[in-house]
Structure formats: C-alpha cells, structure tokens
Amino acid sequence: MTCDSVSKLIPLYFYGELPPDEEDRLEEHLHECAQCTQSLERQRQLAAALDRRRAEAPQFLLEDCRADLMAAIQGGAPRADRKVKGPWTLFLEAIGSSFSGLDRFRQPVGAVALVALGFLAARFTVSGPSQAAPGAPSDEVFATVRDVKPDSAGRVQIAYDETRRRTVTGSMTDQGIQKLLLAAAREENPAVRVESVGLLQRQAGSGEVRDALINALAHDVNVGVRLRALEGLKPLAADPEVRKTLAHVLLTDDSPAVRTMVVDLLVQHRDDAMVGVLQNAVQREDNSSVRLKVEKALKDMNASIGTF
Known about the structure:
This protein is mainly α. It has three domains: 3-51, no CATH class; 61-166, no CATH class; 175-300, Leucine-rich Repeat Variant. The protein is 60% helix and 7% strand. The chain has helices spanning 3-14, 20-32, 34-51, 61-73, 87-98, 103-124, 175-184, 190-200, 207-219, 223-233, 240-252, 256-268, 273-284, 288-300, and strands spanning 139-150, 156-166. Strands 1-2 form a two-stranded antiparallel ribbon. Helix 12 (256-268) runs parallel beside helix 14 and helix 13 runs antiparallel to helix 14 (288-300). The chain is elongated and about 85 Å long. The two termini are 29 Å apart.
C-alpha cells in the first residue's frame, strides 16, 4: 500500500469498516510508516474531540415544534390551547416578512424550515419511553426525516425512518446478546464501550470476540476501553495476532498504564522476535517507570538494552 491510499482508508480503518485482508495490509504499512501512524493518531484526536462535543436545546423546543408540525400537516389550523405565540409562529412571521414579495415561494420555504426545526429538535432531545405491556421489552421510538415534499394546497408529505429502542436481557452465552455486545464495543459512548468490552472478556476464546478486543486495544481513543481490552487478551498473550498488536501498541500508545500492561503481557511468553521490539521501545520511551520495566524485561531475556 502507498501512503496516499492508506491516508484515504484511515477513517474506515479507525471505525472498523475495512475487510480483514485490507485491514491487515494497512496495519503492516502502519508498522513501517511513521507518517501514516501520525495520521491515524490525528484521526483518534479528532474522534476524541467530537466525543466531547455536547449541545443542549431549550427546555420546551421539542414540544413546541412537534405541536406546530402537527398543525401544519393538518392544514395549518391554529391550536386552540395556544395563548401566546410560539417559536414557529414567530419564525413564520419573520419568513413572511422577508419574502413578502415572493408569495409563491412562501409555502415551500415555510414547510422545509418547519421540518428542519423539528428534525434538529429531535436530534437534540431524546423522546421518553413508550408505555409497554407488562413483561414486554421497553421501547423508545426515534424518527429521522429523509424527504420532504410540499404541495400547492399547503400540505406537506414527509418520508422518515423510524428506529425503535428495545431493552433485552439474556445470558452471555446467548448468540444475540454476544452480537449486541460486539456492536456496543464500537458505540460512540465511551461508557458503553468500557462496559461491553469488560463483559466480552469472558468470551475471549471466541474468534469474533478476540478480534473485537484487538480492535479496541489498537484503535479505541478511550484509555479505559483499551485497558479493559488488555485484560481480556491476557489468556491469549501467546496468540501471534495478539502479540503483533501488543508490539504495535507498545510503540504507539500514549498511555503509560497501557504500555506498562503491554510489557507484562509480552514477557509472559518469551519470544526472541520481541527482543527487537523491546529494544526499539526502550529507545523511544519517555516514561521512567515504563522504561525501567522494559529494561528489566530485556535483562531477564539476556538481551542488550541498545540495538547494534
């Protein structure tokens, strides 16, 4: 792979969207190319910055927008219980004033603006749980607007996707539960990833789970998730693919706690191929505790600290 092709694939690689064979080729390139490794680190920093972004909507924005949207769909009839002008009424008046000379455009513009307000409010506010029958899974329904078509009669046709949130309970040995945990290991919420990776540790013997733990260790931006992944990989410290990932993490991870734990796993199974990795690490290491641990591991292996 060339650096140009790798730079285009790094976002897909970061989110685990590459086929296994292409992912392996990209990782081989990353092990040899410091510039592309830095590009991957910039991707991690960007994702971490996006994770920290939060936005809060006004308290009654969703309620007002939903009510106005229903009124518009039903033909623009005003609501009888409204005694004061809401945000949509004020917004529509502003639109009418701005486009007073363009009457034929007012309805389409108003309909699109109305749906935009409703969509943004729904993105910022989570709907409450619906009433479920006793013993049934609890559900929450979320809608994502895909298409809006106003007509000349003042009505609007809206196409939307509906997503239903469910709560399920089951054993870790259940295939459905395990698949959900594997999906949760890639979720945006760091707390969800930490908890799911911690639970997946118990099933590390599964190939899918092993790959998920390796991916979390190598790519997750949250140090808590990476430490949980390391815990789960302890029984697999002799696995060649795991050791390859451990070697990469030792040289690239920014957390001293992660690097310390990686050294412990590497020395559990003495491997002459790891001598070069440890020698390389001791030259790069800027943390005194980690450096002492790597030097001790080399001495225990009767290997020199420096490279010749």
